[in-house]
Design goal:
The complex is a heterodimer of chains A (288) and B (133).
Chain A (H helix, E strand, L loop, with lengths): L1 H6 L5 H19 L7 H12 L2 H6 L1 H14 L8 H85 L2 E2 L3 E7 L16 H12 L5 E6 L6 H21 L7 E5 L12 H7 L1 E7 L3
Parallel strand pairs in A: 3-4
Antiparallel strand pairs in A: 1-2, 2-5, 3-5
Helix pairs in contact in A: 3-5, 3-6, 5-6, 6-7
Chain B lengths: L1 H30 L5 H16 L2 H4 L1 H19 L3 H51 L1
Helix pairs in contact in B: 2-4, 2-5, 4-5
Classes of the chains: A alpha+beta (288), B mainly alpha (133).
Amino acid sequence: MKILSFLKPVPGKKTTIAVVLSSVLLTACAMSPTSPEGSEDVRTKLTELQQNPDMMTHARIELRDAEAAVQLAEQPLDSDEQALADYRLYMADRMVEIARAKGQTRLLEAEREQLGEQRDAARLAARTREADEAHADAESARSSQADAAALSAREAEELQRQIDDLEAEATERGLVLTLGDVLFASGSAEIQGGTNENLEKLVNFLEQYPDRQVLIEGHTDNVGSAMFNETLSRQRAESVRRFLTGRGIDGRRLTVSGFGFERPVASNDSATGRQQNRRVEVVIENRE
Amino acid sequence: MKTHMIRRAAERLGLFTTLFLATLTLVACASAPLPPTESLTMASDAIANAEQAEARRYAGAELEEANRHLAEAEKAVAAERMTEADRLAKQARVAAELAIARTEAAKAAAINREMGRGAEALDEEMQRQGDQQ
């Protein structure tokens, strides 16, 4: 209350404010013109560097020192201190330039690391390419091997399937296919019915494996003379050969022999045994 | 008798005070014209460093400026203008430091150019190898 009453008699608040403001303005006006001549140029140069992010990154300390030097150079001085003003300006200017040069150096060094990385990357790319090529070579070699393996596996599988189909027996001599005596009428060398399922399979097989040599062996039971049986066995083997050549198998692949009753597979004492002995064996030689 | 002695003592004290003040003044006067040894040494060192860094080759003008400032500083010392000598020595030092900074920047730029060429050559080399294959 007392304070208020003390304030109250002051005439014209506006006057007070005006006075304060004008004194502030006067102070400001009084200060700015005494900043030494040339300091603005240095300030401009420094501001330019400070606005450059590269410079701020690589010359932070130097720019801070330069900032202090420029601020000192901007300090108002009396007109008789021109030498000091010049000195401060010189120092500020050189320190701004030092900041610039150091910033450039460090920027270049950073770029150099990048260049090094680029070069390493180029080297790495070359190495990778070489390695990739080597790898691809190895891979293709491996895959061709694998292919070959897969192929031969498939082939073997197919062969096995064919062999199974033929009902042939794998022996040391090769695949032995036994054509039973049902082929032939007793005492006859002619193939009955003109065709036979087993013979068809044999033709297919021989067509599929054209590099395999074939032995055609005729066998008989012990009924009749040895001479007769040998001739008969041979004739039966021959008729198989004829059948095969007639179906387009190269005759040079086919070797014919008649063994008569020399190589029985069963006892000739029983009819069943004799039937088993009357046969033509087709031996498909193992390829080597 | 007593008052006499007191006066004598006061006179002596006055004399001492005068002498003390005179000494102080003398010391102050003597210290003012001392050469700015530190600034001069630092300027010389900076110039030596700049020369070591091959500033003559990369920032000859700046090195020249530093040498000129140092020579002027030494002249100012001879003329006992110590404040001026100090400022000139400091200017010589900052000029030498600028010479070093610019030398290093120039060297760095040269190395980068060289590396750039090397990288290009390497790239080309690899390109060729790649084409051959």
